[in-house]
């Protein structure tokens, strides 16, 4: 039976310094536009967002600016407290909408945070893409005159020797691998930038825009298909077995809606994640497949600095936590 590895991208295969710096700059510039000077979203606050499953900077930047507008300071403790009480299986944006609505009475920024109607979305997208690609993709005038933060600041975490061992491991016919990320994908370059940076662009990838395509095909909202929903991990699992992307996406939806597993001969799924959402998604995938008679085991591996807030959230989902990906991957490849 096949043994499958599913990687998250940011915080696992690469250090998303570009995203984090763009998030901080988005909040700073957004705060300035609202009349607030010297506002900084700290790395500890970013870790809190991610540990609570709010891993999209579109969402966290909008939430930070909502709380700043409401309270006059970037105090997020109350927001984090409400998010902790929400079930982690609920899509991140929905949980965030509920929490912001409960505190401020207005979740408009969160509802619009994935669209050009959101000022913070436009700032963030220009920072991560760079002004030239921002104008090319969105066909609107840029305002910041910047080079891509992703290309400038992201750093690969996978050592060359570990990558070579992984590729050798994947030569075995019973081994497979895919990347599951909330980064924009397909017609957007974010996920592709990341895979090229770690020199793993041979791997199948299932990203945000791919799940959006699925939502458009079968009906529904993208947030309900992305991790922590099982659909995201199921699509990555199917893609890791050599299926094409459309077949994998539709196949995942089918498995969640009564289809049989057919020739899906998988014995173990090993997931590497730095936030709870992917762990929940793969865990739910195991539940779905076992309910259909496939005795698949799921091994959850978390990547986070020991003693930090993210490690606590990952262990709560049943993950064994490592400081970095190379030591973690050694336990699987050895």
In sequence order, what are the helices and strands, one letter per element? EEHHHHHHHHHEHEHEHHHEHEHEH
Number of strand segments: 8
Shape: globular
Q: If you average the pLDDT, what whole number results?
A: 96
Summarize the main sheet.
Answer: 6 strands, parallel
Q: Strand fraction band? A: 5-15%
Global Rg: 19 Å
Structure notes:
By secondary structure, the chain is an alpha/beta fold. It is 52% helix and 11% strand. The chain contains 17 helices and eight strands. The protein has helices at residues 17-33, 43-51, 57-71, 77-85, 92-104, 108-111, 119-129, 131-138, 149-153, 160-169, 190-197, 208-218, 230-240, 245-255, 276-291, 309-316, 325-333, and strands at residues 2-7, 14-15, 155-156, 175-180, 205-206, 266-273, 297-303, 320-322. The strands form two sheets. Strands 5-4-1-6-7-8 form a six-stranded parallel beta sheet. The longest helix has 17 residues, at 17-33. The radius of gyration is 19 Å and the shape is globular. The two termini are 18 Å apart.
């Amino acid at each position: 039976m096949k043994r499958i590895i599913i990687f998250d991208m940011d915080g696992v295969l690469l250090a998303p310094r570009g995203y984090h710096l763009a998030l901080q700059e988005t909040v700073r510039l957004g705060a300035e536009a609202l009349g607030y000077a010297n506002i900084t979203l700290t790395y500890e606050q970013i870790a809190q967002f991610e540990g609570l499953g709010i891993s999209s900077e579109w969402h966290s930047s909008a939430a930070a600016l909502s709380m700043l507008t409401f309270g006059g300071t970037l105090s997020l403790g109350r927001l984090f407290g409400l998010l902790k009480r929400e079930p982690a299986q609920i899509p991140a944006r929905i949980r965030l909408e509920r929490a912001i609505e409960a505190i401020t009475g207005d979740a408009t920024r969160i509802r619009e945070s994935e669209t050009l109607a959101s000022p913070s979305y436009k700032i963030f997208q220009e920072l991560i893409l760079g002004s030239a690609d921002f104008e090319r993709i969105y066909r609107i005038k840029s305002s910041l005159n910047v080079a891509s933060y992703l290309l400038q600041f992201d750093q690969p975490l996978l050592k060359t020797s570990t990558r070579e061992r992984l590729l050798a491991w994947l030569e075995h016919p019973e081994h497979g691998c895919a990347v599951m990320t909330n980064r924009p994908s397909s017609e957007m370059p974010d996920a592709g930038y990341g895979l090229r940076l770690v020199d793993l662009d041979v791997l199948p990838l299932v990203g945000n825009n791919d799940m959006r395509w699925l939502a458009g095909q079968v009906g529904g909202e993208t947030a309900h298909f992305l991790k922590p929903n099982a659909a995201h991990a199921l699509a990555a699992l199917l893609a890791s077995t050599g299926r094409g992307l459309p077949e994998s996406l539709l196949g995942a939806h089918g498995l969640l809606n009564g289809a049989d597993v057919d020739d899906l001969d998988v014995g173990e799924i090993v997931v590497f994640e730095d936030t709870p959402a992917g762990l929940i998604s793969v865990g739910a995938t195991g539940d779905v497949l076992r309910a259909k008679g496939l005795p698949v085991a799921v091994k959850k591996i978390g990547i986070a600095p020991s003693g930090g807030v993210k490690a606590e959230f990952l262990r709560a989902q049943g993950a064994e936590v490592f400081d970095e990906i190379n030591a973690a991957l050694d336990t699987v490849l050895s």
